[in-house]
Amino acid sequence: MKVKIHSLFEYLLETTTQPVEAVLGFSLATSPRLGDYLADLDPAASLDWSNESFQGLNQLREHVIARAGLTGRCTPADVLITAGTAEANYLAIMQLVQPGDEIIIDTPGWPQPLVLAEA
Length: 119
Fold this sequence. Notes:
Low-confidence stretches: none
Structural class: mainly alpha
Order of helices and strands: HHHH
Mean pLDDT: 80
Oligomer: single chain
Number of helices: 4
């Protein structure tokens, strides 16, 4: 399932004069089902990640770029795969928010971003 890039986002990427520091996004598309991908899995693939990047498998990061339609605009080094939203929220807030910064958090919503921002 291809995630559609919002036209405003494209406009911002094309017209900005400063390099992009971080891009956070989400999709309201329905989640794919595991069965949609089972035929693509390689049963001989190793599950040993001991020599892999902490950013996630390079092939997975390349796939994310391609699915988002950002091939040529991003490299695998620009993509970080997390174990879930909690980890992604933590990393984003800890890297982007400094004491005294003003941020917007949707309420009601998941409380973790607010807890992290107040930490």
